[in-house]
Amino acid sequence: GDSVTQMEGPVTLSEEAFLTINCTYTATGYPSLFWYVQYPGEGLQLLLKATKADDKGSNKGFEATYRKETTSFHLEKGSVQVSDSAVYFCALGTLKAAGNKLTFGGGTRVLVKP
Amino acid sequence: DSGVTQTPKHLITATGQRVTLRCSPRSGDLSVYWYQQSLDQGLQFLIQYYNGEERAKGNILERFSAQQFPDLHSELNLSSLELGDSALYFCASSVAAQGNVLTFGAGSRLTVL
Questions:
Q1: What is the mean pLDDT of each run of 10 residues along chain B (113 residues)?
Q2: How many angstroms separate the CA atoms of A98 and A102, rounded?
Q3: Contact A7, A97 (CB under 8 A)
Q4: How far apart are CA A60 and CA A55, in angstroms?
Q5: Using an 8 Å Cβ cutoff, are B88 and B103 in contact?
Q6: Cα separation of B82 and B92, whole Å?
Q7: CA A62: distance to chain centroid?
Q8: Is B85 buried (19+), middle (13-18) or exposed (0-12) by CB count in 10 A?
Q9: A87 within 8 A of A38, measured Cβ to Cβ
Q10: Rounded to an integer, what distance in angstroms lies between the CA atom of residue A32 and that of residue A95?
Q11: How crowded is the C-beta side of B25, counted as CA atoms within 13 Å?
């Protein structure tokens, strides 16, 4: 079945450091890939997405490229801020006749210190 | 505010009891999803409804049931509660049944004592 594996946290960084969170997936068919972010006490928010191979999703300084050959969708940000402290979830969605299920990775907690 | 409203925000109950969680989707969204987030299982998909009909089923226990009403709000019923049912329950909505981005609510935190 479909699955998503992402690096375990917590990841602790200093402000302005470079952030990478690795995500790999297993899926049948041609999934869409997503990064969601969960700030403390809140629900998940879509951060970025990519719907086909070699697409790059970007938002708020975050980027991720859909790599079909390595089945990966790593999240990167060049200079993190304290406000980026959150839990980040990689997810995939496949079009199935039955519905629109998203499969999530385990989440990676990121803590940015001033 | 995502536009997806979940009530209650927090709920504390005892083992063996039954609770109902409510979700109002974002205006214009026809599809509702329920997810369970627990420390040991992560985010697990429970069930999806589209315009009142069940569309996809995930790891939903037989003690749990859900429905979507004509006004498109949804309820998740959890019965014969066990300690292990303590979790955050998220509702999400989307416009269509397939291929769309999900908008999540803030969640309902259930604690079973």
A1: 93 97 95 90 89 90 96 97 96 80 92 96
A2: 12
A3: no
A4: 17
A5: no
A6: 24
A7: 10
A8: buried
A9: yes
A10: 8
A11: 27
Q: Which two tokens stand for residue A17?
A: 């450091």
**Chain A contact present for B25, CB below 8 A:** no
Cβ–Cβ below 8 Å for B107 and A43 = yes
In tens, the pLDDT along A4-62 reads: 999 888 999 999 999 999 999 998 878 899 999 999 888 899 999 998 899 999 999 99
Q: CA A54 to CA A69: how far, in whole Å?
A: 10
d(CA A19, CA A109): 12
Test B48 with A104 for CB contact under 8 angstroms.
Answer: no
Residue A43 is nearest to which of B2, B56, B98, comparing CB atoms? B2
Q: Chain A: which residues have CB within 8 Å of chain B?
A: 32, 34, 36, 41-46, 49, 89, 93, 95-96, 98-107
How many A-B residue pairs are in contact by the CB < 8 A criterion?
Answer: 62
Query: Residue written as tokens 């709000």?
Result: B73
